[in-house]
């Protein structure tokens, strides 16, 4: 079993050693080169992805043809269009590798079988989704309460390494501003 | 065991009849009169709430002293400040009964004990949080892509009964507009 996912699982629940050996066969290890798509908008979404190493962005195509990034995922995060994943429907989002990205992918059907064989993992998924939802509540608070400039400063203060890591045009999209305006905000900070 | 929660649980996981009898002692049944607070911003958040009947809003106090509603919960939804709940820290949000509201409350400690005794419930919480997170992804997409007016029309089309149910000043806050602007949007629709 991949050590990154194994550590993440064991941080959140107890699984017996003989059950851990079972896990491997349920996941598919893949590497996506930079800019490759893990999921395309409109495609049936039957997988979710655990990021072992790398970074992805979740985005959709706006009516004017530009891509709107609404979230990123890095190491130790799960990413997918979770509504489409649970309903086995067409995805409303695409997911792209921002860097060369190694993932473990699991299909909905495989996850159902895995949870039947290792039910302890439900607690792992309960905790990871509770955390993700909790983060979404705070994200909504920020979106309501902060100006775009304040949002940038907030993320820059909280996640400085991440802000440096992602391409600035994607960061601008995530913040809901143009890359030019992001440059202005950053210049203002320096001057 | 309360029938509303029982049905909700059995929709998402299998629990043996003798285990179901256990559940009752872990939850506290409460009725909050209209406008009463279930949780106050700044207060340690040690509970989450399942709405049996009624409606609550999750909000925070903006710097200008007004209340910003970021979410509602109705029958069959869980509500809390989930970051504060899982970390046992001060809440960033308040929760108020929009109508007289009946809930089942459970503390973090009681939930841990419950999941030890009835581990099947982890799958119930996994599925409910996955759905909540999936809804948050779609909510983020709407916030990025829609104007305030389009947001109103979207919610009005998707959830017409709910839009009628909540006080219009709270709906305006949730949409991020003034009550006056909400009236204008609604008038425009009729004319």
Automatic annotation (TrEMBL), chains A, B:
Gene3D superfamilies per UniProt: Jelly Rolls
InterPro entries (alphabetical): cNMP-bd_dom (IPR000595), cNMP-bd_dom_sf (IPR018490), RmlC-like_jellyroll (IPR014710)
Ranges where the Cyclic nucleotide-binding domain occurs: 30-116
Single annotated GO MF: kinase activity
Coiled coil: none
Alphabetically ordered keywords of this record: Kinase, Transferase
Keyword Kinase: yes
Domain of life: Bacteria
One Pfam family matching this protein: cNMP_binding
CDD domains: CAP_ED
Name of the molecule in the record: cAMP-binding domain of CRP or a regulatory subunit of cAMP-dependent protein kinases
Species lineage: Bacteria, Pseudomonadati, Bacteroidota, Sphingobacteriia, Sphingobacteriales
């Amino acid at each position: 079993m991949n050590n990154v996912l194994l550590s993440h699982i064991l941080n959140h629940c107890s699984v017996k050693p003989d059950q851990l050996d079972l896990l491997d066969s349920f996941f598919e290890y893949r590497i996506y080169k930079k800019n490759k798509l893990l999921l395309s908008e409109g495609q049936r979404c039957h997988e979710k992805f655990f990021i072992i190493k790398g970074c992805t962005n979740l985005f959709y195509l706006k009516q004017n043809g530009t891509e709107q990034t609404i979230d990123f995922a890095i190491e130790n995060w799960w990413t997918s269009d979770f509504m489409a994943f649970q309903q086995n429907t067409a995805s409303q989002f695409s997911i792209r590798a921002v860097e060369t990205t190694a993932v473990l992918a699991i299909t909905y059907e495989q996850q159902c079988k895995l949870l039947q064989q290792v039910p302890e993992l439900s607690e792992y998924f309960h905790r990871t989704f509770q955390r993700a939802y909790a983060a979404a509540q705070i994200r909504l608070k920020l979106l309501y309460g902060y100006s775009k400039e304040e949002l940038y400063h907030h993320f820059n203060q909280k996640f400085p390494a991440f802000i440096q890591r992602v391409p600035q045009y994607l960061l601008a999209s995530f913040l809901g501003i143009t890359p030019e305006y992001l440059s202005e905000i950053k210049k203002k900070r320096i001057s």
